[in-house]
Amino acid sequence: MSNYRFILILFTSLLVSSCYETAKIANQNLAFTYERNAQVLHPMYTVYHDSPGQSQLHFSINTQELLYMKSVGAANYMAKISVSYILYASYESKVVLDSSSVVLEDDASKEENVTLHGSFEFKAVYPNRYVLEVVLTDLNRNQSAVSFVEVNKSGINASQNFKLTNVKSGQVLFTNFVKSNEVFQVSYSKNSAQRQLRVNYYKQKFVLPAPPFSVQNFQSQSLVPDSTFELMLDENFAADVKLRSRGMYHFQSDTAGNDGLTVFVFQDSYPLLTTAEELIPPLRYITTKQEFESLQNSVNKKLAVDGFWLNNCGNMDRAKSALKVYYNRVQNSNTYFTSYTEGWKTDRGLVYIAFGLPTSIYRDSNGETWIYGEEQNSRSLTFTFSKMVNPFSDADYSLNRSENFRSDWFRMIDAWRQGKIINEK
Predict the structure, then answer these.
(1) Which CATH class is domain 4-154?
(2) Where are the alpha helices (DSSP H) in 288-360?
(3) What is the distance of C-alpha 392 from the center of its chain?
(4) Which among 36, 96, 126, 170 is most buried, taking Cβ atoms within 10 Å?
């Protein structure tokens, strides 16, 4: 029984291209994109550059999130979905470069509780970067999900020239992390004649980010591969791969530069935490050094974690509530902020776990600004993250740290240690 199927495309309508303007994405509050409960639908997207002038947008949606209805005279219950996009040159641009919409149907008489897959092409040329605003709508329910997908077509060696697929189902993978020993296929764009890839493996574990108030000058790390191997592509520019060890694997078609595709092997349950051992590392943000070492060295780690929360929160109800919110934020950080390391270990993950979802988030080509409280209010807390150039990730954001965050940071840590959740989102 397959867990995937393609949606039937009923209608394609090309909208007006390059002749009208809309509001800049950079001026919109995008906090909802990091709040799972803000939208009923949770589609996933990935981009693959299949030709010099066209690229593919692949999307998926779980049938459990859709409403199936039977029309008068119809034999089966059907879901009806529309997917539309607008292509911009950047977050700051108002000019529409390309736009289109498709309407799709799915028959409920087929397999239930599966993931629906679809794809269509949009106009994009080398060497450029773009932003796609994508709206997926359940037409039966009249509910929509808005997403923003960055398109990196800066060159034929960039990560979106590679496509990952599940070998058994043949379906596109929407994340770049896989399970250890899972067989998947990597494809490289036919725009190049390259038939051999270099794969560098890094097993290095990255250190946790410093607190927001730390202003010491950290030296960037120069990574050296722990091992290297070659991957030969077949006549379809594809090869099956199985990665056995945890770590980071960087696939390159051209070793003269740094660009390429990075695939990660974390714990098999990633982005979820499913064992007591996995619950301990994220506690480093709110524990003393002695407490953390005690947790790490404990024989019964589940009992130790429960004891930490109970001892600090004072009662069982408060401990359960704080524990639930804290680890939900850890897992959400893995979902939204995975970069060259686990999402909870990134700067955005650090702030999100401690302070929760911001009131406002503004994104542009240079980074993101998170505001806790009213905008233009001097008492509101504002964090600015600069987008970094990183060959291993297009999602590396560095917090602009300041001594001014010291009191707010320790106030929040004290609140967590007492089980006082200031912002539950």
Answers:
(1) mainly beta
(2) 289-297, 301-313, 316-337, 347-355
(3) 14
(4) 96
Block residue for tokens 């807390």: 381
Q: Specify the pTM.
A: 0.93
DSSP for 220-264, please give it. Answer: PP----SEEEEEE--TTSEEEEE--SSEEEEEES-TTSS--EEEE
How does residue 22 score in pLDDT terms, banded at 50, 70 and 90? confident
Evaluate if residue 211 carries a pLDDT over 90: yes
Tally helices (H) and strands (E) across the chain: 6, 21
Compute the chain's Rg from CA coordinates: 23
Tokens at 8, concatenated: 């039937």
Contact predicate 152/176, CB 8 Å: no
Q: In the prediction, which pLDDT does 423 show?
A: 75
- Nearest Cα neighbor of 233 from 212, 210, 261 is 261
Contact call for residues 254 and 194 (beta carbons, < 8 A): yes
Do residues 40 and 138 touch, judged by C-beta distance below 8 A? Answer: yes
Query: Model confidence over 106-157: pLDDT tens digits?
Result: 887 666 668 888 998 999 999 999 999 999 999 999 999 999 999 999 999 9
For 19, 119, 123, 186, 423, the CA distances from 57, given in Å and listed in that order, are 22, 5, 10, 17, 35
Distance CA 6, CA 23 (A): 33
Helix runs in 39-155, H state only: none
Is the distance from CB of 150 to CB of 394 less than 8 angstroms? yes
Residue 244 to residues 2, 183, 232, 253, 265: CA-CA distances in angstroms?
25, 10, 18, 22, 8
Query: Residue 111: its pLDDT value, please?
Result: 62
Domain boundaries, the chain: 4-154, 177-265, 276-417
State the pairing for strand pair 4-6/115-123. parallel
Q: How confident is the model at residue 23 (pLDDT cuts 50, 70, 90)?
A: confident
Per-residue model confidence (pLDDT) at position 320: 93
Kindly tell me the burial class for residue 367, based on how many C-beta atoms sit within 10 Å of its own C-beta (0-12, 13-18, 19 or more): middle
